[in-house]
Design goal:
Blueprint: E1 2-11, E2 14-24, H1 40-47, E3 55-60, E4 63-64, H2 69-75, H3 88-96, H4 101-107
Antiparallel strand pairs: 1-2, 1-3, 3-4
């Protein structure tokens, strides 16, 4: 479970992320959609611990990112961003390559 509560992030005088809250349950597939500059990349960087929020909290499996950044990063399997030029088949193979060999045939 990823629990995001009231995260914000500003760059200079520009507020890129303003009190955003949401939850993602284990097994859910979620996408962030929005115009350029809407804060999608900032949100992903905050969730994965590569950017600190100016406010708010992020918890992964109940662990607060601010208290255990390395532990949270180890729980996150991976993210994808900017793969417009990658074909669907290549992306599926890349994702499925992380599965045990016995599961690949049935899931892909």
């Amino acid at each position: 479970m990823i629990d995001v509560q009231l995260i914000s992030r500003a760059y200079g005088g520009f507020l890129a992320v303003d009190d955003v809250s949401f939850g993602i349950e284990r097994g859910e597939i979620v996408g962030l959609l929005g115009h350029n500059g809407a804060g999608k990349t900032a949100i992903m960087k905050i969730i994965t611990g590569f950017l600190e929020p100016d406010g708010g909290t992020v918890r992964v499996d109940g662990i607060d990112l601010a208290e255990d950044r390395t532990g949270v990063q180890r729980r996150l399997l991976g993210t994808g961003s900017g793969f417009e030029s990658v074909t669907r088949g290549v992306m599926i193979c890349a994702i499925c390559s992380t599965l045990p060999a016995s599961s690949r045939y049935f899931r892909c």
